[in-house]
User: Fold these one by one.
Assistant:
Number 1:
Amino acid sequence: MAYLELKNVSKQFGNVTAVRDFNLDIEKGSLVSFLGPSGCGKTTTLRMIAGFEQPDQGTITLDNIDITTIPPNKRDIGMVFQAYALFPNLSVRENVAFGLEMKKFPKNEINQRVSEVLEMVRLTTIANRFPHQLSGGQQQRIALARALAVQPRVLLLDEPLSALDAEVRVALRAEIRRIQSQLAITTVYVTHDQEEALSISDKVVVMNNGCIEQVGSPESIYRQPQTRFVATFIGTANQFSGKVSDDHSVQCEHAQLQVADMRQFSKGEDVVVLVRPESIQIQFEPTHEPNWNLLEGVIETVTFHGAVTRIGVNAHGQRIVADITYSSSTPISLGQHCWLAFRSESCQVMGLEK
Amino acid sequence: MNPSRKNKPSTWQYILIGVFLFYMFVPIVSTYIFSVATRWDRTILPEGYTLNYYTQAFKASYFISSLKNSFILSIATVLVGLIIIVPTVYWVHVRVPYTKPLLDVLMILPFGIPAVVLALALVQVYNFAPLARSPVLLIGAVVIYSMPFMYRPVSNAIQAIDVITLTEAGQSLGANTFQLLRRVIIPNILTGIWSGSLLVFATVFAEFTLTKLIVGARFKTFPMLLVEYTRINGNTAAAFSVISFTIAWLASLLILWVGSKGQASYQKAIGAR
């Protein structure tokens, strides 16, 4: 049974449909990310869960209670904002205690809880400072502590790391995940950063143009994208357009590609075959093996990315990228002739219309 | 920029500053001197000095009561203005931000209506007891008249903070609108509230036209006493002016002090971001 449930939720701003017929079940204690480009409706959906926006249609239920019309201050849903939104006139301790004071907790319990959450975000030493004296990362940790202090039923995070430096971002996202699992608090996390969404979530909801494109575990989103949008938005994908020629192959312009899973597509249909760069090997002597595809090409670019090296290959006029773990013993030079090899299992077939 | 050029104003700038200071200070300085001069119509400087006019001013039958009435009027106007303006500005910024231009225009209107017209219109409309020609009606009129002075600083202060996000943060922590205003919004716009209050206080303390036309002699304020004395004794009237100036200046100093304090804490708050 779902803990937080959105049913047929739609929201329009003037003529623009921000969210269209959104249906989602979120299990208790899980971390779900809304991932998509800006303007895809992810923040609007989050704000409807928080109660800051009213859906035009549909219902939102929390623990089997319809909360659609309940005002935000009575929902028991915590929120962390991109801009931290700490109260500038209150000290760190007072900020964290704010929600508990609103709920009229006894003084000694407030003190105890504040100390607990400050310890959780590892910031007990700065309890008496004011927000303007803290770094961005510290401010956001305090904002997280403030939201957690009241023990909300759901925690919402609206691009909480977007305003921070890369290093702080990675550290803090691990911290958020650690605290979330420790408290087993149901969490919705909005981000446009795919790496963030994939690394932190139990479930990822990919959104585009106000609609859900795909819901699934981070791995299934990456490995089995259901739409072309998901395939290209998450990570990089090489695309080959062609026609289905039989149950296991697609005829493209310059090659016939073997495909392990043809899904629902039948002979003669126009399709796109997607291959991730890391699934492609570069060979200088072609090795013909069953279930492997081989494409001939010329190396055009070599870009060092640290852990991998991205090779750009011109194969019959189409640019294809392959990520290889670089070893200097096999020097790669521009203009070199090569073969691109990839397994039939690495090929994802998509319909054209999506 | 060349520092020597920057530090040397041109002759024209000196003349302009000189004319400005002359224009501003001569009447004030003259009033101060006149209030302590024995006789000052035949010589360049007064023939002698005395504090008699101040003694007369302080002994005037309505001195205390008119001062008290002026304080009542000013403080009541500030309070009513605050109660109307602060929640309105907050509500407009958070809930209906698209109506803000309309409010901006509305808040200029009092400047465009002559006090005489406002006073006569109010007297005509509210010509029934207990409102007719009462101090309450006067406070209502003065609130309208001084509203722009309250609105501007408060509106600017609200604009300077991220009022929508702070509101949402407070709501998500369970605060209702009243708790939000009291604990979060008002403490963060206190500078604007102070400047607005003191501007209104100073304006209303010197208000004459509306008082004269709406309540007349029944509620004698300090400016009315002053005008009365211009017909009796010029020097005593000057002494009244000096007392009035002093109160207005103390109010202005308070504004400057609060303003600089607010500016400093605002810079501190913004600086770290």
Note: The helical segments of chain A are 42-50, 92-102, 107-120, 136-149, 166-183, 194-200, 218-223, 228-233.
Number 2:
Amino acid sequence: MSKPDLLRAFNNPIEQYFEQAATMLAASQKEWQPATARQIVLDCALFRLYCYSSAHKHSMPVSGDDVVLIVYAMVNTASILDLCPQSSMIERLQQQGLSVYLMEWKAPQLEQSCFGIKVYLEQSVDVCVQHIQSAHQLEQVNLLGVCQGGVFALCYTALFPSKVRKLVPMVTPVNFHTEQDTLSLWARYLDFEKLLHQGENISGALLAQMFLALKPMTLSVQKYLDVADNLNKPEAGPLSEKFMAMERWIQTTPDQPAQVFREFVTLFYQQNALYQGSLLLSGKAVTLQSIQSPIFNIYAQQDHLVPPESSMALAHAIPENQYQDYAVNTGHIGMFVSQKSLACVPDAIACFLRQ
Amino acid sequence: MRFASVAYQYFLIALQTDEDCIDQARSVFSQQFEWILSQVSDIEAHVPERGQAVVQKSHEIQIRICDFAEQFERFYLSTFKTFKQQQTMLIENDPMQAFSQWTQMFDNEYLFFIRQEHVCKNYAWIMNALGELSAMLSLPSSLD
């Protein structure tokens, strides 16, 4: 039998099975809208600051326990934290009585390609912290740093220890040279003097392909088999909406500012300088030992992007009486959207902030 | 979704003959290597206008990419053969479940493959060289 004949022989039932699932998913395709009401309180060149509380609450004095600023990564977008009504970490944090602020990066312009991490931190996180301090008459602000945003939050706290009340790194890499860190192995031999050209940023699409290449079959094929199987069950519910929201999020891949990316890969992934205590950002030493705030380190036990060992390494750098950690049996993305994580993580964060 | 459907159909065909397994690999990985392949196309489009240094560099890169792809295909073929030997019953009784098993087995084996130092070095060499070549192409041709 020739190859086209073979394909035709298999075609009918299989094609119908997938076609039916594809039709259901296509019907759920829509633009992402925040699941939780929010307002923009700062709109700057590098970022927007959103406040997830009613307008009358913003600018009112509140307890320092109850305010948290989320610092997201530059990879993908922060919409994953408020993906849809059934899966919103931000909504769950709000239900704990927290006033949530989110700093979301804007896609970098070419003129920002030469800004390094320290400049970014000073012109973004620090601006947000000052705004929240002033709006709520607070001396210190709680930070929740997500993935790479957790690394930024650690660096910011080390640079400005007196401004941070408590710090929650979530799925944050600390030791970039653990055995299971595939991204780190790949990054080790890249030469950024050859790869980066002046006046260019890093393609977000290229990075997305690299993440996909960590689990190619699971992320390109298996997830569709799973969703097709589940969509055909009567209890599928809002699965197709959530799946399509995730697909849109995966496909939204902003470019990375070149100098920040270069520093992030060479200083963190290649030199492991934060963990080794040798990190210099624009000539300024950044050491984890400078952090005075209590830390609640949340990591995912099934994380294929940031191995749990990498996050857990923070315990070696922070005094015991200042450090707690919290493991969730989920994956990197599952930390933000899985029901398992949403059922316990927001509560654990609120408890820590109010201790 | 339709991509998964095609991948499954390629899987069914590949169960018949080992050679077709390579088509299956290409169908799944065409997305992953799209960026590298598009870079090569760009190089080919620019090379005739450029000097000897660029021609030599692009030739070197294309040889490395071919070697890299061949090495990957050999790995894919050997993993698929092992899978077929281990899962004859499942393949016979429930091909959809067998496909699911295959995707999981492949990703586990693939992780071991791509974590090998020589593979990481090869991949980095290609990326670094593409960067270098891209810089050469953006320079005035008189510098070649």
Note: Residues 3-27 of chain A form the longest helix (25 residues).
Number 3:
Amino acid sequence: MINQKEVIQNAFKAAFPVTVPIMAGFTFLGLAYGIYMNVSGFSFLYPMLMSLTIFAGSAEFVTVSWLLGPFAPLKALLLTLMINARHLFYGLSMLEKYNIPGLKKYYLIFGMCDESFSINCTADIPVGVDKSWYMFFVTLLNHLYWVAGATMGGLFGSLIHFNTQGLEFVMTALFVVLFLEQWMKEKHHGSSLLGLGLSVLCLTLFRGANFIIPSMCLILGALALLQKPLEKVGGLQ
Amino acid sequence: MTMTLGQQIVTILMVILGTVLTRFLPFFLFPPNKPTPKFIQYLGTVLPSAVLGMLVIYCLKDINLLAGNHGIPELIAIAVVVGLHLWKRQMLLSIAGGTITYMILVQRIF
């Protein structure tokens, strides 16, 4: 029997390489967020603590403007629920995978940002590697990259001068790759195509981030209507 | 700054609460010790693909096809990512190749 320490080390070694693109993306986006808070007049403690406790990039960016405006806690709560509504779908997708014993489960759910979700959801965890520790390290490393980036941005934001324009595309590239991986694994592409198609439709109807909630409703409706045929052709497993 | 420190902390707590709610709710509603409804189990198998598709589009939400560079750098860079991935199927190579392409396009060409 391998001892616990080895189990943890093996999981870390398997998880780290997968998170490298996120290290690049989160350091950059975290820096951008920290700099934004810095130039908005906040101490580095704000981006540091907010990235640690909120750990949801888009919500953190808008919180800056809420902190600069009048005190409206209910508005902050409702808008956060709307911005982060997509997490509901992540949770529904991960009910089984994240159903692991112990406290790790709660951290996995707390840290379920877009990147941790999509990696843990599509990961082909090597045989012999402990799944719960693997998913734990993916989440923890992503969390660390994000906090480190945001803190550095808050501390040294105004001193950084090199041309990083376009680096944010690393996140788009990550999601495209994970989408492709899922595509190559699945038996039929009904659900993938619905997700893409209905999102494009909603994005043309509703501008910017407003497309998310209508897309989720349409996707849910379409999947409900197509339950019989989609179950017939078989799911992923 | 118009808010007091206390008000700032409450605002941040609200954002934390909102985020935690959206992440924990499904696990709360469908705990492992109770049988999960068939429809939710079905959603668990088909949603991941649809959500990943939605996430790709989410990244492209700020593109304006009618103005600026019309989203051409994004389309080219995504084509590079897909091409590289179908060719070598190495995650890091596909991501790095696409990102470098995009950076060159927006810094030098568009």
Note: Residues 190 and 229 of chain A are 10 Å apart (CA to CA).
Number 4:
Amino acid sequence: MTGKRQDQIPGEGSRAVFFERRTYRRRRIIDATRLLPVLGVVLFLIPLLWQGEGGARTTDVMIYIFGIWALLAGLSGLVSRDLGRDRPGVDNENGTDADLFDLPDGEGE
Amino acid sequence: MARQVLLIEDEPNIIEAISFILSRDGWDVKSHSNGHDAMDVVRAQRPDVVILDVMLPGRNGFDILADIRADPELGQVPVLMLTARGQVKDREMAERAGASHYMIKPFSNAEVLDVVRSLVRT
Amino acid sequence: MTTPNLLVLVCILYVTFLFTIAFAADRAARKGRGTWLRSPLIYTLSLSIYCTAWTFYGAVGYAARSGMEFVTIYLGPTLVMIGWWWTLRKMVRIGRSQRITSIADMISSRYGKSNTLAVFVTLIAVVGTTPYIALQLQSVTLSFAAFSKVDPTLTSVVRLQSIGLYVAIGLAVFTILFGTRNVDANERHHGVVMAIALEAVVKLFALLAVGVFVVWGLGGGIGDTLATIDASKIAEWEVPGSRWAGLTMLSAMAFICLPRIFQVMVVENEDEGHLRTATWAFPVYLMLMSLFVIPIAAVGLERLPSDANPDLFVLTLPLMAGEDALAILSFLGGFSSATSMVIVAAIALSTMVSNHIVMPIWLRMKGGTAVVAGDVRDVALLARRLSIAGVVMLGYFYFRLSGAGTALAAIGLVSFAGLSQFLPALMGGLFWRGATRLGALAGLTVGFVLWLYCLFLPSFGPGVLMPVSVIEDGLLGLSWLRPQALFGAQGMDKVVHAVMWSMLLNTAAFITVSLLTFPKPIERLQGAQFVNVFDHSGHPGSWTGGLAQSEDLLIMTQRIMGAAEAQALFSGMAHKQGLTGYLPEPSTEFLGVLERELSGSVGAATAHAMISQIVGRATVSVEDLLAVADEAAQIMEYSSRLEAKSAEQARTARQLREANDKLTKLSVQKDSFLSQVSHELRTPMTSIRAFSEILRDAGGLNLREQQKYSSIIYDESRRLTRLLDDLLDLSVLESGQITLNMQLGLVADMLDRAVAATGADGFRIERDVASEQIVLNTDVDRLSQVFINLIANAHKYCDADQPVLRIDVRSADDTLEIDFADNGTGIQMADQAVIFEKFARIGESTAAGAGLGLAICREIMARLGGDISYVPGQSGAAFRVTLPQEMCMAAQ
């Protein structure tokens, strides 16, 4: 149970501080999946800085936006492919995971 | 030419007794003592009557009877089944398998003779 | 020249094609074929119903008016999609585990299956979606009109509007045919999804084709086209920051909340893994759809007369260039965009309307009793079909009444803003266990009212639905209540203004009321299940009643439905299964029926939870129940009592079953023993009787014959006697009534005796007499009997040409071992297990003996505290007699 898990003191009981490499890898891929939209928001907002006299033109913004779009789709494809290759079908980590304090096995009961 | 009886039975003393009784009545008695190749012998001999024991080494009498009945050329041959187990379900199995007659050991000699005679007549 | 009649023919052919595809896909799915129907690609393509005619025609128009701003509508969904791990994954998982049928169902299910909430969400969805359906019908009509401008034979507005009607009717028929084949709204509509996916390909291909034609055919290549853009009136990058960010956010929110997207993304989802593909493939799709929008807009602005409708550039540019085939393709693209949106929206809305409005009303009218399962099914299907027709026709009337004016063009964003009001309740329900039903109701009400006041009503223009005075001076003349400058927020963009206030106050009301109110137990139960969905069983499925206890289910059902009704239900089901009494087998079907019945009394989610308690599938964990406190504590106590009881019952049943198995086995053994005894007794008796009759009746026997037959009789009587002796011996040994006559004896002496007793001639026995000088304190006669049996067996069964039996005596650790090994072929592995059983005669040996010898040996050795076993892997048959060492004494 997530609720229980959060009450415990880090490092106590059944929590493992280190886990196997594969699990660690998967955590980082999930982190990347979570951060990707944040990156997208930042990148999509950047053109707003170019407004004003002598700023960018529609064509510049268009090329930039489509470039970022393709980049994001590509990154998303890469990350989700890694996620699928590693332990397919098991994805029980919740949004609040702090990586050091998770059970080595992310699966629920 | 004498009518032929094929006796399939594994007890040598019983073979001897039945052979004695039937050959005195003018039958030509051949015997065979295991279940394995009983069908081959039946096919080769083409007897007029088969006397078949149930508990045979190698293969039980019900299976042999079923094979005889399934064989288009042998299908009609009269078969007298002998058993020493004497349970009701054995009789049922014999009837179902298509035995012409069924006798429980020990039998009386006269009865065996009568049955064999009647099986050939019909 | 393309005539409108040709256009109509193309439409009809295309629609026929769609029907065929949908029909084939449905058939394939039904027959279990076509796994490709469930591929992630089809899933991704079906998501493209986000791109409606508003995208296909409207995006270019939008770009022609406001430049790059149009792209915000597609950036929002892109961000949501690549951020699938945050929200979509959870929504899809919950949708599958809770068998959610619509967004209204999800929200109401989260807040304790509240029907009030469901009705409210349904109403907002209908209000927000109907104009959008009207927009699609309008786009089809307008695209016909675009052709008619070139060809003056079709100008009548009446005919145009009748086209809208035909399209609406056709779509309703299609949706009813393929969208309501099953009463279970949670089931997949393979035909519909397939048709949608196909239309997704058509519209993308059409738009790309027009784009390629415009850039390379009309624009003169990429460089020239970019120059054209730079020279057009949309060359400047001047989108206000608030609109750029605000509209991106709005489209992101709407993407999550749109009923039609929810339908394809959550309800029709076949496999959570499909999201992983959609996360990159859908952004690619959106990007491709948007790629040529600015070029088409710029070239259109340059080439077409200034009064041309930019919303139709996609169509009018190829027409102007005389590319009729391309124009027809483009028309089909727009037609696809419009029809797929209407179909899915109609399914989504009709599910909500029938499940949350029509069915509850019908059930209330019929009263609580006399609800036959089949009856309900038919009514539900009928309700869904009528709702589909109703929703589509509502769209058509809206289209007729709004008069194809400009009001419709603006409806896209207005609709987005309205549907986004679901977001706080939805996300709060997904991530915050403290969210309550009243909080959700409050948030939705505040958001909906503000949306109506600030955006929807003013969007028809001043004085149409909202008096000019209100717009200019505020409600009741209060200037801070001006709909487009609420609380003095002046100078903001109208849409951004409305979205900001409605979402802000919606969320505020939702959180505040949630904090102040206390949820009902069922809400907390559902809340825990939603928020912690990943902690629960990952794979929802149908009930399997393997462990269910029908009796416990009956007890529970009686408590909920009342004894008489519960018993009637149970005995009815039992009767249906061909059983008598009150307890049916807990089959999947029965549990399904039971859950449906119970949900009528306690709500679907509760019924599900309660059955899962008894069936033993832990969708509700003990921790969850703990968290739900008060009433739930009672439920838990009750359920653990049930659990203990069913465990006990299971134990007793198992014991009974084992006892019964044992008895059955014993009875079979007894039968077979009697049958064996009968055989063994009757066989010698047959010979005896036959030969005595011969001696008595048959005359003329010579002396030799007489002697021979007499000796047969004699031998067979001895055999009989021996058999009877053995049987009695064995029965005494088995019953344990044997008295052992313990005395001292030398092993060598006993073996001597045994060899002598068997009288084995022509049979060599190898012994090492020196090792046999061991004195035993045992029952010498019994042990000798074992030795005799073993030697006699070897004598009887050893098949070597020159049979040899070797007897080895050995002291090992605390036991004395005596091996009897011959040089024959031994006993086959399969037979080794049975040789110590009674009457076990292996192979086809005709040697005399009833097969009791080894059984007797085993019994004797057991009485003597030793053992006898077969030693496999020797050169011949080998038996080992083992005796405990304490019986031994060193030879004096």
Note: Chain C touches chain B at residues 671, 675, 678-680, 682-683, 685-691, 693-694, 697-698, 712, 716, 843-846 (CB under 8 Å).
